[in-house]
Specification:
Layout lengths: L3 H21 L9 E5 L2 H4 L2 H10 L14 E5 L13 E7 L5 E6 L7 E7 L2 H33 L3 H11 L10 E5 L3 E12 L2 E15 L8 H15 L8 E4 L2 E2 L2 E2 L3 E7 L2 E13 L1 E14 L4 E10 L6 H11 L12 E2 L1
Parallel strand pairs: 1-2, 1-3, 3-5
Antiparallel strand pairs: 4-5, 6-7, 7-8, 8-15, 9-13, 10-11, 12-13, 12-16, 13-14, 14-15
Length: about 350
């Protein structure tokens, strides 16, 4: 008979063994925005591979030009070893398996790895299983990769500017070095980072901006795209002037026959309701624009809505990596000195 004390000792040993195993694992690796697909060549070149590419390489929402949601790399199962086995985001396609189902495995071969295994009896059944779980898999990889970027941001925190924002607005964000304060008061802040970036023979000034605005909470009508778009425009009309006299930032609602209204969805941030919105901004009276992403959350204790936003101006450059880093900053939001709010999709 195992006594209670012995049970605690056994549990401690098991937990110690898990910790020791995790500590022995190498760190995960791989490029930003990348997912490694482990799938045989035959299946990769037929229906299962097409189904995977259709999901993982679909256009990312809220960008001015088509950019794939993820960069996709592929290897065969027999090659999934050594350097490839430590990739941070993996889809393992087990086709022809006796077992079926979907498993989400963390730290399977490396610390900081998310491996999603989809198993089924044949290619046709596997495609059906993949389609049934693809949305959840995409959200999981997005959250996982945002967390990886967030860990890097924590190492690059600018203590001075973070302290200034916290002192004036009562919130904490993992703001990396290079940002400067354009405007700040008790309900609004505009921070900006300007960098000369080069690539593919191009060189241009890239602007990354952070907006923070706080409003009294009135009703649940707050949590709709039209309301949040109008609220954003009201803030930026007076708070974010453009490069030309009289110009100011606006949300792009449409162009000719195209509907450009932002998209939005609700999510849970730890123990509270929040709303994520993606779209395009422009400048009324000036030629300037790009993507933005905003995160609004309810501070019920203070009866206020906290909105944190990121926007980027990077003409001639892809925007995906910039937007993903801005998202990681937004999701680091704290307003009570606690750990960063983590998304529950």
């Amino acid at each position: 008979m195992i006594t209670r004390a012995a049970s605690f000792c056994l549990l401690a040993l098991l937990m110690s063994g898990c910790d020791e195993r995790a500590n022995r694992l190498p760190e995960s690796a791989g490029g930003q925005d990348e997912v490694l697909v482990v799938m045989s060549k035959g299946h990769w070149e037929s229906a299962p591979g097409s189904a995977v590419r259709a999901i993982l390489e679909q256009p990312m929402q809220g960008l001015p030009q088509p950019e794939r949601l993820f960069r996709v790399a592929q290897c065969q199962p027999q090659d999934f070893a050594s350097l490839l086995a430590v990739h941070h985001s993996v889809l393992y396609a087990d086709i022809g398996s006796d077992s079926t189902g979907v498993a989400m495995l963390r730290d399977a071969h490396a610390r900081g790895q998310l491996l999603i295994r989809v198993a089924d009896a044949d290619g046709e059944a596997w495609v059906r299983a993949w389609h049934s779980h693809a949305d959840a898999a995409v959200r999981a990889w997005e959250d996982h990769q945002r967390t990886r970027i967030g860990a890097q941001l924590q190492r690059e925190r600018d203590a001075a500017i973070i302290g200034q924002v916290k002192g004036r607005l009562g919130i904490d964000l993992d703001i990396p070095g290079g940002y400067r304060v354009m405007k700040i008061d008790s309900t609004f802040a505009w921070l900006q980072r300007d960098r000369i970036m080069s690539g593919s023979g191009l060189e241009h000034n890239v602007i990354e901006g952070l907006l923070i605005h706080i409003h009294p909470y009135a009703s649940d009508s707050t949590w709709t795209v039209p309301f949040l778009v109008d609220q954003r425009d009201a803030v930026t009309r007076t708070g974010v002037p453009g490069p030309v006299e009289g110009s100011y930032m606006i949300v792009q609602r449409g162009f000719e026959q195209m509907n450009l209204m932002p998209t939005g969805r609700a999510l849970r941030l730890r123990d509270r309701f929040a709303y994520l919105m993606r779209g395009l901004y422009g400048m009324h009276g000036a030629k300037m624009g790009g993507p933005f992403v905003s995160l609004s959350t309810l501070d019920a204790a203070e009866s206020r809505v906290i909105t944190v936003e990121g926007f980027v101006y990077a003409p001639q450059f892809d925007k995906r990596a910039y937007v993903r880093e801005l998202e990681a900053i937004l999701f680091s939001l704290r307003d009570d000195g606690s750990d960063p709010l983590s998304a529950k999709q």
